[in-house]
Amino acid sequence: KMTGESDLSIKEAFQRAQKGHNNKAKLVASLKNTYNKLEDKTLFHEEFIQYLKHAMIVYKREPAVENVIEFVSRFSTSFHTPSAEGGEEEDEEEDENPFLSYMFNFLLESHKANSHAVRFRVCQLINKLLGSMAENAQIDDDLFDGIHQAMLVRVTDKFPNVRIQASLAMARLQEPQNHQCPTVNAYLLILENDSNPEVRRAVLSCIAPSSLTLPKILKRTRDVKESVRKLAYQVLSDKVHIRALSIAQRVSLLQQGLHDAVVQVRLLPAWLNLLQGDVLELLHKLDVENCSQTALDTLTALFTHTPQDQLLHHRLQLDDRMLVPAGSLSCESVLYWRALCEFVKTKGDEGEEMLEKLLPEAATFAEYLYGYMKCVPVLSEEQKGDFAQLELVMTKEFISQQLIHLTGCLDTNEEGGRKRVVAVLQEMLVLPQTPPSLVSLLTEKLLTLIPDDHRRIQTVAEVISEVREPIVIRQPLDENENRRKQVKLAEVKVGILEAKQALEECISNQEFNRAAELKDSITDLENLRNNILQEENTQQDDKETETRIEKTDPETLLRCLTMCVELLKQMNIKTRIGPTMSAILSSLILPSISNAQPAVRNMAVVCLGTCALHSKDLVNTHLVLLLQIAQLDEAKIRISALRSVIDLLLLYGFTLLSERPSPAPQTSHSPANQEDQEKGEEPEEGSSTAQSILMMLSDFLDSEVSELRTETAEGLAKLMYSGRISSAKLLSRLVLLWYNPVTEDDTRLRHCLGVFFQLYARESRAHQECVEECFLPTLQTLLNAPATSPLAEVDVTNVAELLVELTRPSSLIKPGDTQEVCVHDYLAVRVCGEMLKDPSAPEVRLYAKVLNSLELSADGNTTRDLVTLLQQVTQVHYTGTVLTTTPGDPVTTPGDPVTTPGDPVTTPGDPVTTPGDPVTTPGDPVTTSGDPVTTSYTGTVLTTTPGDPVTTSYTGTVLTTTQHLVTLLQHNTW
């Protein structure tokens, strides 16, 4: 039995180290004892390295080899003793550990070895040696620089495992506070550019967070590999304090992490631990006013991982009425209250019991909400310039908004409580101090409590009437005020008489300038007299009067239109436009269309478009107006009008348009837009209304306003997917728009079209036929694009591959009979015909690749026809150099000899001739009687005369085809 103090040979130590069950510490102690007894340690060093080399040439992570590497690292660092303070001991450090220095020097000499196994083991050993050294270990500066330079080279090694070990080895060499540190810069470069995810993970695990490295670590939370994202969140939760992150960074991390299925919820517990478990403090760190949805998602995630019996152990300070005192309400506490109540409500019956401990009765809460809303101040224009007051009002608005959301958690089954909540919501909508930002939410909650559409319409109409025509109480003038008015009137009359006398004197004295001034003065005094008399006539002295005054200011109109929009949203689509809604339409919505304020016009357009969804008559009456707005108004309003038009077309289709005259909207009439686009449910080609709308939409795809362009593309995608239109030209426009570099930054457009293409093509055979029809026009547009066009940058091959994949028969959701002719068969004919049109065109090579990737049907007749077609495409007459021939086998097409039978075998370099023709030179075309030369060809001769073998290969030749094949291709028939 080996003891720690017994002598041990190097060979025996290495043999025992390979076995995992051996105690490494005892092995190290035994071999160290042997080493210490030697006076000359040179032979020991050399022998030790010799045995180590056997392990270093093994690349595979064999357990025996890993055990040896572990043993070597332990033994090499076992000579190091922690240094005490003092310069002398530091100077002696190098002499006290010559073996470690020898080991490092050997590894540094070996790191450039040709064998990737040796390079891997060198980096692994350096990593383990540095990792096994004590925290206060010191090494020579030259040795440090040598290790540093070697590892900087190895992090660029072509083998990922070598780069991983080199990255790990540099962990103790980095200087986080030094922005010029080569290690830190190397780490940043690897994180940004290394293609191997395991290398990026290795760097993430050892990089030290700092102001320089933190942005790169944050970027890895959006890495394409799940494992890297998970580690990035782990590093942030373990090494980065929440205070080191900006509010925007905290919110971004939570938004990404909570919606990433593979990222476990580790960051939140870590942050809560740093904040002593204070959830409200965590919310404060997130600025909930500006990112309420992220805060709600965060709280939901916390509640999900909280045991149900601990959910009510909250930090809310509820009073005896089960309410948070108004003085204690803050943005964080009210959002926590709302999130907890909404989460508990999802728990069914058990949740209903828990809600009773979180919320009061409906009527009590309604009064509480009304009391708080009445206290929200209304700022004047001057006060709005005071940031402190503005911030206070915004905070109160946010709290009010969360309290309104809480009404959705109330128990409104009891009739009295529900009626009180409805009444309070109505009163708040009428209150002048109710912020405009809350009108939409208040209306939504109000209508949720009213199940019947007719009652909803009546309720909203009443509220609108109260807001637009509030009751104004006129007070009678008191005696003193009346007396003052009489005195004022007498003074004005006297002034008029005096001015008239002075005017007569000026005229008689011929002072005409003075006379003109007096005349103006008399006019002003008479106007003032008339105003005073009019006030006296309208004044009712006996009693107070109640008068309704119609308000037409933009704020009032916008408030009323917002309520209309919410009403129309919640109305059933089958509910028709009755008298009440018609009155609102004529008195509020239509007059607001021409309002000077863009916000009012925009809301009115939304209302009009939504109303039209409930009535075909409104479509016929106001469609022209919506089309004009879509072309002539501001961008935001145009987009709203466009959405309305798209929605109407989706609901009613183009058949409705055939019943009305053409609106002839203003559009550009470029040749590219003169499209014959009606199929399916569209009216006949003569319908100018449908044509005009489609031309307008086509124009919008070229708009410089990205939002309008995106909305148009999305609308066309919906119309095509729903079958309302089927147009290969419009589909081609969408494909080109998707690939156009101009839309590179338009994420919504790219995502929408990317999803649409896949769903559209997989839906039906008819859709695939539409894609097939747009194949050649799309490619030709790209191939013919001028160099100055953005389309010139598009990879045409990639576009072709996409369209081929979209038309693949196997990708259909419901594949048809595999024996019938499929879309790819038709596409093959089109491509062959295009190749035969211009044999010398550069795109012929692209078309050949397309043919090779098609998925053709198993139909026998179709296959034979395609084989015949392809044979005709590949049969050749050519002038060039004969590379190989077989005696007696002429290279011909059926009936058209190039050489005559019996001619001697030509040798390389001899020209090919036809009987009686002079010898042609390489590159001259050879044609046969009646067969036009249609294309050029580079490759191998595939066919000769029937029954003859393939006899030659050639370069630079001319294809021919027969007239019946040209006819076949022109008519696209089999």
UniProtKB/TrEMBL annotation:
<dbReference type="Pfam" id="PF12719">
    <property type="entry name" value="Cnd3"/>
</dbReference>
<keyword id="KW-0498">Mitosis</keyword>
<protein>
    <recommendedName>
        <fullName>UVR domain-containing protein</fullName>
    </recommendedName>
</protein>
<feature type="region of interest" description="Disordered">
    <location>
        <begin position="661"/>
        <end position="688"/>
    </location>
</feature>
<keyword id="KW-0158">Chromosome</keyword>
<feature type="coiled-coil region">
    <location>
        <begin position="515"/>
        <end position="545"/>
    </location>
</feature>
<dbReference type="GO" id="GO:0000793">
    <property type="term" value="C:condensed chromosome"/>
</dbReference>
<dbReference type="InterPro" id="IPR027165">
    <property type="entry name" value="CND3"/>
</dbReference>
<feature type="domain" description="Nuclear condensin complex subunit 3 C-terminal">
    <location>
        <begin position="559"/>
        <end position="856"/>
    </location>
</feature>
<dbReference type="GO" id="GO:0007076">
    <property type="term" value="P:mitotic chromosome condensation"/>
</dbReference>
<comment type="similarity">
    <text>Belongs to the CND3 (condensin subunit 3) family.</text>
</comment>
<dbReference type="InterPro" id="IPR011989">
    <property type="entry name" value="ARM-like"/>
</dbReference>
<dbReference type="InterPro" id="IPR001943">
    <property type="entry name" value="UVR_dom"/>
</dbReference>
<dbReference type="InterPro" id="IPR016024">
    <property type="entry name" value="ARM-type_fold"/>
</dbReference>
<dbReference type="InterPro" id="IPR025977">
    <property type="entry name" value="Cnd3_C"/>
</dbReference>
<keyword id="KW-0175">Coiled coil</keyword>
<dbReference type="GO" id="GO:0005737">
    <property type="term" value="C:cytoplasm"/>
</dbReference>
<keyword id="KW-0132">Cell division</keyword>
<dbReference type="GO" id="GO:0051301">
    <property type="term" value="P:cell division"/>
</dbReference>
<dbReference type="GO" id="GO:0000796">
    <property type="term" value="C:condensin complex"/>
</dbReference>
<keyword id="KW-0226">DNA condensation</keyword>
<feature type="region of interest" description="Disordered">
    <location>
        <begin position="884"/>
        <end position="940"/>
    </location>
</feature>
<dbReference type="Pfam" id="PF02151">
    <property type="entry name" value="UVR"/>
</dbReference>
<keyword id="KW-0131">Cell cycle</keyword>
<feature type="domain" description="UVR">
    <location>
        <begin position="498"/>
        <end position="527"/>
    </location>
</feature>
